[in-house]
Amino acid sequence: GDALAYEAATLVGKKQTAPDVQGHLSAARATLAAVPWEAAALETKLKELAAARNVKIGELFMPVRVAVPGRTAPPPLDRTLDVLGRERSLARLDAAIAKLAASAKAPETP
C-alpha cells in the first residue's frame, strides 16, 4: 500500500488541536480535489484557503506536508503534490484525516 508511518500527533502543531487540524485537512482535501493539478494553482488555492480559514499558512501547510509526503520538512509542498499526483495526494489526505479521527476516539494514555 501507500500508507505512511507517522503518529497522528505529528499532524498537530503546538498551538493547534486535533479537531482544528482535522478540519484544515478536510478543507484542504476538498480544495485540492476541485482545482487543476498544477503546482502554481495548488499553492495559490492552499494560501487562499488559509486566509479564508483565518489561519497562518504554516498552520495549514504543515499538516498537509505530514499527510502527503510523510515528513514535516520535505521539498516545496506544491511540487510534492504535483509529483505525487491528485489521486495519491488525496488518498494520503484521507488517511491523515482518518488517523486524526481514530486518535480522537482512542482513550488517553497517562
In summary, what is this structure?
The chain is mainly alpha-helical.
Word description of this protein:
The chain is mainly alpha-helical. The protein contains five helices and no strands. The mean pLDDT is 88.
Q: Count helical runs.
A: 5
From the alpha-carbon coordinates, what is the Rg to the nearest angstrom?
13 Å
Q: Which range best describes the helical content: under 10%, 10-25%, 25-40%, 40-55%, 55-70% or over 70%?
A: 55-70%
Give the uncertain stretches in residue-range form. none
Query: DSSP strand (E) fraction?
Result: under 5%
- How would the global form be characterised? globular
Question: What is the succession of H and E elements?
Answer: HHHHH
In round numbers, the mean pLDDT is: 88
Which structural class do you get from the secondary structure elements?
A: mainly alpha
Name some characteristics of this structure.
mainly alpha, about 110 residues, globular
Topology readout:
Blueprint: H1 18-33, H2 39-52, H3 57-67, H4 77-84, H5 86-105
Helix pairs in contact: 1-2, 1-3, 1-5, 2-3, 2-4
